[in-house]
Amino acid sequence: MTVDHKLCMIPGPIEFHEDVLNAMATPATSHVDPNFVPVFGETLEMVRKVVISETAQPFVVSGSGTLGWDMMVNLIEQGDEVLLLNTGYFGTHFAQCLETYGAKVTQLYAEVGSRPSQEQIKEALSKTQYKLVTVTHVDTSTGVLSDIKAVAETVKSVSPNTLVVVDGVCSVGSEEIRFDEWKLDVVITGSQKGLGVPPGLSIVVASQKALEVLQTRKTPVASYYSNWNRWLPIMQAYEARRPAYFATPAVQLVYALHTSLKKILSQPLQERFDKHRQVSAHFRQVVKDLGLTPVAKCDECSANGMTAVWLPEGVAVGDLVGTLANKGVQIAGGILKDYATKYFRIGHMGISVMEDERGHIKKVEDSLVNSLTELGYKSA
Question: Is the pTM of this model over 0.90?
Answer without folding.
Answer: yes
